[in-house]
Amino acid sequence: MAVKIRLRRMGAKKAPFYRIVVADSRYPRDGRFIEEIGVYDPTKNPTVFNVDADKVKAWIANGAQPTDTVKALLKKKSIL
């Protein structure tokens, strides 16, 4: 089972915000997930990015792979 840390799109049309979730890679983008570990809202100024760093590190230690977008956000916050 490949576990990914990825964005789950929420919000209205043309006003997205995202939840950072841990999900099986076989599930759809907005489908079932294992755990929610943060939020990302690019529509706010400044951009809102809150994530539980301890949970991120624990999931990565257990083999979860962040997507490219999530990896970039985590590097920007110096979590990775």
Q: What is the topology?
A:
Elements: E1 3-12, E2 15-24, E3 35-41, E4 48-51, H1 53-61, E5 65-66, H2 68-76
Parallel strand pairs: 1-5
Antiparallel strand pairs: 1-2, 2-3, 3-4
Structural descriptors:
five-stranded mixed beta sheet, single chain, 2 helices, 22% helix, alpha+beta, 80 residues
Q: What's a quick, concise take on this entry?
A:
This protein is of the alpha+beta class.
Structure description:
The protein is an alpha+beta fold and 80 residues long. The chain has helices at 53-61, 68-76, and strands spanning 3-12, 15-24, 35-41, 48-51, 65-66. A 5-stranded mixed sheet has the order 4-3-2-1-5.
- How helix-rich are the residues, as a percent range? 10-25%
Main pleated-sheet profile: 5 strands, mixed
Terminal CA distance reads: 23 Å
Structural class: alpha+beta
Cα radius of gyration in angstroms:
12 Å
Task: Going across the biggest sheet, name each strand in turn.
Answer: 4-3-2-1-5
Number of strands: 5
**Range of strand content:** 35-45%
Order of helices and strands: EEEEHEH
Number of helices, counting only DSSP H or I runs of 4 residues or more:
2
